[in-house]
Design goal:
Layout lengths: L1 H10 L3 E7 L6 E6 L5 E7 L5 H11 L7 E6 L5 H7 L3 E6 L15 E5 L4 H10 L10 E2 L4 H5 L7 E8 L3 E9 L1
Amino acid sequence: MENTIIEMLEQRGYTNIVKHENDTGELFDIECIDTNNKTVYVKYLLNRLKIPYFFKKYMEDLDNPTDIHHIIVLRKKHSNSFLKLCSPYDVEIFTQNELQVNITKHVLVPEHIRIPSQEKDKIAKLLQLYSCDTIANFPILQKKDPVCRFYGGKVGDIFKIRRVSPVTGEYVSYRHVV
């Protein structure tokens, strides 16, 4: 699981990945910098009975938790009350099972390249190329799609998807995140 998380961070383009031993001594917490020079923390909350309590304590220990992107790894699915607790912060939540395997390396998953919504020039060229008025005319990719979550896709991002076929060669398509 730890290798998959590090691969996920590297594939997102994050840099300065540093592991810190956490308070349980079992796993490592990870700190890195994203493409916008924003700090990213990966926090494991696996062996906790009172996850909301430990999450609150974790946020209180930080100087300015709203300026930090958090990736929280839980043992199993989270409750709605925990989601409400996370809502004021920039938090992504993964379960341990979702990070057991790097899904982008599976033979049936085509290559995905994320084009962030900030790169307006590339998006404008795509719209002209496909004679579209808006990106809403592109096929959609759900925000909760496993590959989209793995790459940290946000609403408005566009993914370039390359499929290789022995019949057609390489086929490229684009999807926007909703």
